[in-house]
Amino acid sequence: MTLTLPQAFAQGSEWPTQPVRFVIVFPPGASINAFARLMAEPLSQFLGQTVVVETKDGAGGMIGVTHIARSRADGYTIGMAHVGTLAVQPAVMGPKMPYQALKDLTPIIHLTNQPNVLLVHESVPVQNFDEFVAWAKKNPGTAYATPGIATSNHITGELVSSALKLGLTHVPYRGVSQVLPDFMGNLIQLAILNIADAMPLVADKRARAVLVTSDSRLAELPGAVTIVESGASPSPLNSWQGMFGPGNLPAAIVDKLNQGFNMALKDDKVRKWMETVHATPVGGTVADFRNYVVQEHEMWAQLVHRFDLEQLA
Asked: How open is the CA angle 76-80-83, to the nearest 5 degrees?
């Protein structure tokens, strides 16, 4: 009797029997690349096969995710993607997207959450969020910088400005590296950055954090209110990372990879990296992550439509 691929694995086929390719959609030098390479070692030990880390970046991560989506659903090509490639960009681009996130990819595990942070330059005379709101209303049109158009940072800014009637003006840059010189030079007084990029500025007292997009306050930024506390959003707006495979990946493979990554998230070196970049480990079941991706897909689509960002595609 001939078995289909899912049936074969369900009956105990010894996957994997060859190296597994771990695709990263972020550019070389990004801290997340180090994260992936750290996880590859414990994952390799768990699977009993070499895990080869490859970078396929470009187009905001879409080139790498497209490659994953078009790979064979045999478990030998998996990849790490983020909220932008799986929720924000699909909402902005609609039918122009080269893949359908909920159809062409198989969620494996929710790896980490990293909130964005609303920063004010040290020269701005505010010490907390309430003072920031009062200051912003007295200075309508104040510009805020983000790493780009239609990013989670941009949407966070539009949401806060709209909900609290602040009248802020978005100034998109091409990446964090271009934001930092202007912000540190006081050419622009507000910025919304990922926490990994924001913390060094706060630590050096070049900026104050007044809001975080997480669902609870952070020990390292005790004075920053959450976006839920601010009244701007009923839910957090996390910048998250997760593992995916091609669509229709057999359940037995998905479950084994989920177990391996849950174990890798507990590795000492991986934990140390996450502490360094202020990332919160998540883990959990395949079902948990699948439901989360659907919810995130719907939430970001609503926000993109609310601020008419489809026109930017």
From this structure: 145
- Per the structure block, which two tokens stand in for 14? 């010894």
CA pair distance 296, 189, nearest whole angstrom:
30
Q: Per CATH, is 5-114+239-312 categorized as 3.40.190.150? A: yes
Higher pLDDT, 154 or 1: 154
Express each pLDDT in 133-182 by its tens digit.
999 999 999 999 999 998 999 999 999 999 999 999 999 998 898 999 99
- If we measure between CA atoms, which residue out of 156, 151, 177, 168 comes closest to residue 312? 151
Token pair belonging to 310: 């489809």
Q: What is the biggest distance separating any 2 CA atoms in the chain, rounded to whole angstroms?
A: 76
Please name the residues in contact with 37: beta carbons below 8 A apart, sequence gap of 6 or more: 53
Read off the pLDDT band of 60 (50, 70, 90): confident
Task: Dig out the tokens for 45 from the structure.
Answer: 């030990």
Tokens 């490859």 correspond to what residue?
Answer: 54
Measured between alpha carbons, how far is 245 from 292 in angstroms, rounded to an integer?
16
Q: Strands, DSSP E only, in 29-142?
A: 51-55, 77-82, 105-121
**Where in the sequence of the chain do the CATH 3.40.190.10 domains occur?**
115-230
**What gap in Å lies between CA 198 and CA 196, rounded to an integer?**
6
DSSP structure string for 272-304: HHHHHTTPEE----HHHHHHHHHHHHHHHHHHH
Tokens 């202007």 correspond to: 182
**Range(s) for CATH 3.40.190.150 in the chain?**
5-114+239-312
Among the four given CATH numbers 3.90.1150.10, 3.30.310.50, 3.90.830.10, 3.40.190.10, the one describing domain 115-230? 3.40.190.10
pTM, 2 dp: 0.89
